[in-house]
């Protein structure tokens, strides 16, 4: 459970960072499986202009370890607590931000896309990033603009050129104003950290030219009553299975990870 | 004068960071003049693909404040001390790393270019970065690979595509090996800091998508006896005036900056 102070911080600042939420064993199996997924040729795996993997969508539906993470109580319970109701998986992806070639994500809000492309009624969906590699200041951390979630959906332009993924991005004047008010935070830390933030929080990330990859699981939990009304994107990008997630028991992923480690030894 | 420990650190690690070397008045005039220079249309001012200013070469020759910085004893004396002889200005530029659009500089060594393009006999020239804006982890700081200066000139490829400036860049396998040995440092701090590093130290910088510009003066002081033998680049990129720099008195830039401030008030 989140403390009162954490709940208040989420509502005030628009984000909450929970370092070391998953242990080394759990991270090891999730990371190893992510790399195996990236080697697959399938429509859910998108690549950078360079050919390096960028994103693997819906990995929780075709990979057991990621399936266990997607129902993990350490993640599901706090979000249920904040929304006051059960949640379902709106989107699940593993973002690579590859070493040397990891591409930029321009400043944007996610709820803009969910509203326009998926018909999501309200911004009652939570973005969650789970670090599979150490996130450092120099390998393209997510940058958030605190308090920018309080202003609703901001005007945005559809950018299909800058990056490999079409995005509704904000203009420089808007971002400058928001940053003057709220600054920028870039939570960093070892693999296993969990960052959650509001669907209207403005965020982006710079490119990565270091030899350190920065893989994260980046998923969205939507309040069940806020299910999407007008899906236009493929099922594996914006899911239409609105059944409430039933969390696993606390130790399910841990046990799976330990079996994985023992098998490798 | 540098302490014995600073001299040792330079030789061991390949760099030395001297925070807050120039005061607020001095920074203010250098920065204001840099912005005025960027507004000029002249061959020495290069731009990003977006049109934003990227680099202004040879500004010390056509701007009085930058002319005073180029002869400043706080910068010249330590470099003379390390080389044991007088120095001259090999290159002087103001790099913009503009807000939102600041471009990447791939991993490279500078001495490779000086040797190949300018006929510089030895890596006895010092790179110096003087911060005109606050350098933060998130606005594209210079990243250095400590100890990489001890390996001489590494094999490199001429990259004319990635960035707006042709560079001899290192491949990923080489950079990975160097970083495994030495790590990466990215000195940050308020405007006025001075970073000096060896001509063979491997360095690069990521793009800047924040609203915070990261202007630095980036100059090269060459030992006079190491003057370039085969210039092939324009005089304003690789100077051929090999006369030893005669430092100004300690207060010359300070007095200029104070007059500038008083005139503006």
TrEMBL record, chains A, B:
Q: Name one Pfam family in it.
A: PhyH
The domain of life is Bacteria
Q: Which cofactors does the annotated protein need, by name?
A: Fe(2+)
Q: Name one GO molecular function term.
A: iron ion binding
InterPro entries in the cross-refs:
Phytyl_CoA_dOase-like (IPR008775)
The molecule here is called: Proline hydroxylase
Instruction: List the source organism.
Output: Rhodopila globiformis
Q: What is the lineage of its organism?
A: Bacteria, Pseudomonadati, Pseudomonadota, Alphaproteobacteria, Acetobacterales
